[in-house]
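F.,

This is the one I mentioned.
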């Protein structure tokens, strides 16, 4: 048997890339930083979550948080710390929090690739992963948000 010398190139391991489960647009991060500074919440982060209710069965929520829960996912996007609980991440993986100005004023909007349908108010949605018993709590888009 003849053995040929071959040079095998060993591939260098690829660096781990930390993916942000929920991202903020630059505009959203800037507006949040502005509001936090006005409220004296310089050490706080943003909690993004999902809860039952709303026109479509699930609704989005956001609030400032000074300390994460022990099982939260925490990450930084555009200088803003974001916290998401393990249940909410199922519904929010890949979502983007945006801030938009309009003639009626500005507001935050969550663009969620996991939503199979959304209410016209933009505050509630339905997902394929939604439990069977989670029925919509309202009708149409007469939300009382």
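My design for it:
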């Amino acid at each position: 048997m003849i053995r040929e010398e071959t040079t095998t190139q060993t591939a260098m391991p690829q660096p781990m890339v930390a993916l942000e489960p929920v991202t903020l647009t630059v505009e959203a991060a800037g507006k949040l930083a502005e509001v936090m500074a006005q409220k004296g919440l310089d050490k706080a982060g943003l909690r993004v979550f999902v809860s039952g209710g709303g026109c479509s069965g699930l609704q989005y929520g956001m609030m400032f948080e000074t300390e994460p829960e022990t099982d939260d996912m925490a990450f930084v996007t555009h200088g803003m710390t974001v916290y998401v609980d393990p249940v909410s991440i199922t519904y929010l993986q890949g979502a983007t929090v945006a801030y938009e100005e309009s003639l009626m004023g500005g507001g935050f909007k969550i663009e969620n690739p996991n939503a199979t349908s959304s209410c016209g108010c933009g505050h509630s949605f339905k997902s394929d992963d939604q439990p069977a018993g989670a029925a919509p709590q309202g009708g149409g888009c007469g939300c009382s948000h």
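Strands lie at 22-24, 45-52, 58-65, 73-77, 80-84, 95-102, 105-111, 115-118, 124-127.

Talk soon.
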